[in-house]
């Protein structure tokens, strides 16, 4: 966004802007800093793809399978996609979709706990709980499509997400003035 002749971006602080946001004038970065920020971001995106180095049973994946997860993310970037799913669901990039996704995960997690599908131990409890529900109900879903189907069945969540993001954007604009 151009503000007063300079390029400014708003960076959310914490997951989903939990701690607010900060306006950054990227024109003030010299070439070295700009290159570092770019490489740090790319490295982070690729490393996020391999954050979970275990399979669904908690066994450590071999190196070639970990690298394959990173290659899948890179291929998606080359294809112009910012959102890639590696097993369990990844958060969308669009702020409204991300907020709707956050709400959906919270509600689905509550449901999984109430019906006894929440694992007591291990990694990716959310994904494992949803998969247990999918298997139990004999559904033709992945964790991702389960969340998407839940969002379609609960359209008020998207309305609430739009309102929340609009309120957050308005608060950010007010803070920058």
Count of beta strands: 3
Give the fraction of residues assigned to helices: 55-70%
The ordered string of helix (H) and strand (E) elements is EEEHHHHHH
Overall shape: it is globular
Question: What is the number of helices?
Answer: 6
- Give a quick account of the main beta sheet: strands, pairing sense, barrel closure: 3 strands, antiparallel
Computed over alpha carbons, the radius of gyration is 19 Å
Structural class: mainly alpha
Order of neighbouring strands in the sheet with most strands:
1-2-3
Low-pLDDT residue intervals, each spanning 5 or more residues: 84-89
Mean pLDDT: 81
Our count of domains comes out at 3
Roughly how many Å apart are the termini?
14 Å
Which band does the percent of strand residues land in? 5-15%
Topology:
Layout: E1 2-3, E2 6-12, E3 21-25, H1 31-48, H2 63-78, H3 95-114, H4 125-136, H5 143-153, H6 156-176
Describe the structure.
The protein has helices at 31-48, 63-78, 95-114, 125-136, 143-153, 156-176, and strands at 2-3, 6-12, 21-25. It is mainly α. It has three domains: 1-48, no CATH class; 50-86; 95-176. It has a three-stranded antiparallel sheet with strand order 1-2-3, with no helix packed on it. A hairpin with a 2-residue loop joins strand 1 and strand 2. The chain is globular and about 55 Å long. The two termini are 14 Å apart. Residues 84-89 have low confidence and may be disordered.
């Amino acid at each position: 966004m151009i503000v007063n002749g300079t390029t400014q971006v708003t960076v959310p602080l914490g997951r989903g802007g939990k701690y607010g946001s900060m306006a950054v004038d990227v024109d003030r970065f010299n070439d070295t800093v700009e290159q570092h920020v770019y490489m740090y971001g790319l490295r982070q995106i690729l490393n996020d793809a391999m954050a979970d180095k275990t399979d669904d049973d908690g066994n450590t994946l071999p190196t070639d399978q970990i690298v394959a997860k990173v290659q899948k993310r890179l291929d998606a970037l080359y294809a112009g996609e910012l959102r890639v799913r590696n097993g369990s669901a990844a958060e969308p990039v669009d702020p409204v979709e991300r907020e709707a996704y956050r709400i959906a995960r919270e509600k689905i997690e509550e449901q999984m706990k109430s019906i006894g599908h929440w694992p007591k131990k291990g990694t990716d409890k959310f994904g494992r709980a949803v998969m247990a529900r999918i298997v139990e109900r004999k559904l033709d879903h992945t964790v991702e499509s389960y969340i998407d189907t839940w969002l379609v069945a609960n359209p008020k969540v998207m309305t609430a997400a739009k309102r929340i993001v609009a309120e957050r954007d308005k608060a950010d604009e007010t803070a920058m003035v």
